[in-house]
Protein: Fibronectin type-III domain-containing protein
Amino acid sequence: MAELQWTPGRDGGANITGYLVQFNTSDNPSEWINYHDEIPGKVQTTYVNLPPWGMYNFRVLARNKVDYSKPSNPTRQPCTTPPERPSTNPKDVRTQTHKKGKLIVSWTVC
Structure:
């Protein structure tokens, strides 16, 4: 879990009513994904659950009665999550033997 905090910028002349947290991954850095529903305007901290084996960057957009702001600059350093053991066993484990002294094991990833 990561804790994100931000400081509000200029409100554009209308009160900020909410924030939208977005993230991207090192696998697809050009695609920004909305983390979850809009966060109320008085809140400036949120907690995000992140899958293992990832590198994530975050940015925040503010919203007032007109529309969303341009996104903030992304976080300076990516948030890296540690590896974790698999949650399930492989399925369809099978062996193939074509040559003496050689064994090939294959399986399906769940």
